[in-house]
Amino acid sequence: xxxxxxxxxxxxxTDSVISLxxxxxxFRKSNLKSPMERFSSEWIPVISxxxxxxxxxxxxxxIRQNRRLKLSExxxxxxxxxxxxxxxxxxxxxxxxxNKFPDEDDRKNEFTKLNEENFPSISDLNNSRRKVSHYxxxxxxLTRYNAITEDEMMHMVxxxxxxxxxxxxxxxxxxxxxxxxxxxxxxxxxxKKKLELIEHKMRREI
Length: 206
Known about the structure:
Helix content is 83%, strand content 0%. With 206 residues, the chain is mainly alpha-helical.
């Protein structure tokens, strides 16, 4: 994995600092005799070095602050999307179907049967399944490609939300039985356990 954009910028500025230090040593080795030349050789590189170090620190904190703002915006957008009317209707449809078939195998078999024999009857339910699936898949890709860290993601998702993903898992298997990838579901299952442990610990401390 290559360096992040933040690390790349800091490394570039650090290289500038190293270059200035080399210039400073070269000046000190020179045989300049006049007071002005000695002043220039001694202090101008030092001042430049301090200014560069200040630029490094300023850039680091500016980038950090910018990332915090972007994470806040992302968290707000995700929360808004999960709470909107369309998502609520999708969640309700998924839960109703899951309540009719609480056993995962029964849910998968029934969805498979309807998908093959009477798809119009589950067309709306299938759209609800897709909406829930795409929501979590988007978050999954953000972590998979290191756009956000796992810790950052855990501040944006509640363990109760992940239950919705578990409800559609048998339907996802029914839609694509041969090429079904369980990795995303295993990943969020592990996240749910971590979030439950954090919540349990917080309750004990209250």
